[in-house]
Specification:
Layout (H helix, E strand, L loop, with lengths): L5 H14 L4 E5 L2 H12 L3 E9 L2 E8 L1 E2 L4 E2 L4 E3 L8 E2 L13 E6 L2 E4 H7 L3 E7 L1
Protein backbone atom coordinates (compact mmCIF):
# COMPACT_ATOMS: atom_id res chain seq x y z
CA UNK A 1 0.00 0.00 0.00
CA UNK A 2 1.24 3.47 -0.85
CA UNK A 3 1.84 6.35 1.48
CA UNK A 4 -1.17 8.58 2.16
CA UNK A 5 0.85 11.82 2.53
CA UNK A 6 4.30 11.72 0.89
CA UNK A 7 4.98 15.43 1.54
CA UNK A 8 4.40 14.99 5.29
CA UNK A 9 6.74 11.98 5.14
CA UNK A 10 9.44 14.14 3.49
CA UNK A 11 9.08 16.92 6.07
CA UNK A 12 9.14 14.40 8.94
CA UNK A 13 12.33 12.78 7.59
CA UNK A 14 13.99 16.21 7.35
CA UNK A 15 12.78 17.18 10.85
CA UNK A 16 14.02 13.89 12.39
CA UNK A 17 17.41 13.99 10.64
CA UNK A 18 17.79 17.64 11.64
CA UNK A 19 17.00 16.86 15.30
CA UNK A 20 19.46 13.95 15.28
CA UNK A 21 22.01 16.31 13.61
CA UNK A 22 22.56 14.01 10.61
CA UNK A 23 24.55 15.37 7.66
CA UNK A 24 22.11 14.12 5.04
CA UNK A 25 18.77 12.41 4.61
CA UNK A 26 17.26 10.32 1.78
CA UNK A 27 13.70 11.00 0.61
CA UNK A 28 11.86 9.04 -2.14
CA UNK A 29 11.74 11.24 -5.24
CA UNK A 30 8.75 12.97 -6.85
CA UNK A 31 8.43 16.21 -8.81
CA UNK A 32 6.72 18.10 -5.98
CA UNK A 33 9.33 16.96 -3.42
CA UNK A 34 12.06 18.12 -5.84
CA UNK A 35 10.34 21.54 -6.01
CA UNK A 36 10.15 21.72 -2.19
CA UNK A 37 13.85 20.77 -1.92
CA UNK A 38 14.71 23.54 -4.43
CA UNK A 39 12.78 26.11 -2.36
CA UNK A 40 14.49 24.95 0.87
CA UNK A 41 17.87 25.35 -0.88
CA UNK A 42 17.02 28.77 -2.37
CA UNK A 43 15.83 30.04 1.02
CA UNK A 44 19.01 28.76 2.73
CA UNK A 45 17.42 26.07 4.93
CA UNK A 46 19.39 23.16 3.43
CA UNK A 47 22.89 22.95 1.99
CA UNK A 48 22.15 21.09 -1.21
CA UNK A 49 20.20 18.21 -2.73
CA UNK A 50 20.88 15.68 -5.46
CA UNK A 51 18.99 12.89 -7.19
CA UNK A 52 20.36 9.43 -6.35
CA UNK A 53 19.45 6.56 -8.69
CA UNK A 54 19.05 3.23 -6.91
CA UNK A 55 17.81 0.72 -9.42
CA UNK A 56 14.14 1.10 -10.26
CA UNK A 57 13.45 4.09 -7.98
CA UNK A 58 15.20 7.40 -7.31
CA UNK A 59 15.80 9.23 -4.06
CA UNK A 60 16.59 12.84 -3.23
CA UNK A 61 19.67 13.11 -1.03
CA UNK A 62 19.26 16.30 1.03
CA UNK A 63 22.32 17.77 2.73
CA UNK A 64 21.32 19.53 5.94
CA UNK A 65 22.86 22.79 7.16
CA UNK A 66 23.94 23.77 10.69
CA UNK A 67 25.59 26.78 12.35
CA UNK A 68 28.54 26.74 14.79
CA UNK A 69 29.86 23.22 14.14
CA UNK A 70 26.43 21.49 14.37
CA UNK A 71 25.54 23.34 17.57
CA UNK A 72 22.62 25.33 16.08
CA UNK A 73 20.07 24.00 13.58
CA UNK A 74 19.18 26.21 10.61
CA UNK A 75 15.66 24.70 10.43
CA UNK A 76 14.10 25.37 13.83
CA UNK A 77 10.66 24.23 12.68
CA UNK A 78 9.07 22.54 9.67
CA UNK A 79 5.35 21.81 9.64
CA UNK A 80 2.80 20.40 7.18
CA UNK A 81 -0.20 22.72 6.77
CA UNK A 82 -2.52 21.27 4.12
CA UNK A 83 -3.24 17.58 4.74
CA UNK A 84 -5.02 15.06 2.49
CA UNK A 85 -8.00 15.03 4.88
CA UNK A 86 -8.14 18.81 5.26
CA UNK A 87 -6.77 20.93 2.44
CA UNK A 88 -5.82 24.54 3.21
CA UNK A 89 -6.00 27.10 0.42
CA UNK A 90 -5.07 30.78 0.47
CA UNK A 91 -6.01 33.46 -2.02
CA UNK A 92 -3.60 36.21 -3.04
CA UNK A 93 -5.11 38.53 -0.38
CA UNK A 94 -4.84 36.10 2.55
CA UNK A 95 -1.45 34.47 1.83
CA UNK A 96 -0.03 33.44 5.25
CA UNK A 97 3.14 34.93 6.71
CA UNK A 98 5.33 32.69 8.86
CA UNK A 99 6.68 34.47 11.97
CA UNK A 100 6.05 37.91 10.41
CA UNK A 101 8.21 37.09 7.40
CA UNK A 102 11.07 35.35 9.25
CA UNK A 103 9.91 31.95 8.02
CA UNK A 104 8.59 30.83 4.67
CA UNK A 105 5.32 29.23 3.55
CA UNK A 106 5.57 26.77 0.65
CA UNK A 107 2.58 27.13 -1.68
CA UNK A 108 1.47 24.96 -4.60
CA UNK A 109 -0.05 27.20 -7.30
CA UNK A 110 -1.15 26.70 -10.87
CA UNK A 111 2.23 28.21 -11.86
CA UNK A 112 4.20 25.67 -9.79
CA UNK A 113 5.45 25.32 -6.23
CA UNK A 114 6.78 28.59 -4.76
CA UNK A 115 7.21 30.60 -1.57
CA UNK A 116 4.51 32.83 -0.11
CA UNK A 117 6.59 35.90 -1.06
CA UNK A 118 6.79 34.82 -4.70
CA UNK A 119 3.03 34.03 -4.83
CA UNK A 120 2.26 37.44 -3.31
CA UNK A 121 4.51 39.14 -5.86
CA UNK A 122 2.82 37.31 -8.77
CA UNK A 123 -0.64 37.95 -7.30
CA UNK A 124 -1.77 34.32 -7.16
CA UNK A 125 -3.07 31.97 -4.48
CA UNK A 126 -2.91 28.23 -4.00
CA UNK A 127 -2.66 25.32 -1.59
CA UNK A 128 -0.45 26.06 1.43
CA UNK A 129 1.74 22.93 1.70
CA UNK A 130 4.11 23.72 4.58
CA UNK A 131 5.66 26.29 6.91
CA UNK A 132 9.43 26.41 7.52
CA UNK A 133 11.19 28.62 10.03
Amino acid sequence: MGMSDPIADMLTRIRNANTAKFDEVLVPMSKIKLSIAQILKDEGYIGNYEIVENGKFSDIKITLKYRDNKMTKIISGIERVSKPGLRKYAGKEDMPQVLNGLGVAIVSTNEGVMTDKEARKRGIGGEVLAFVW
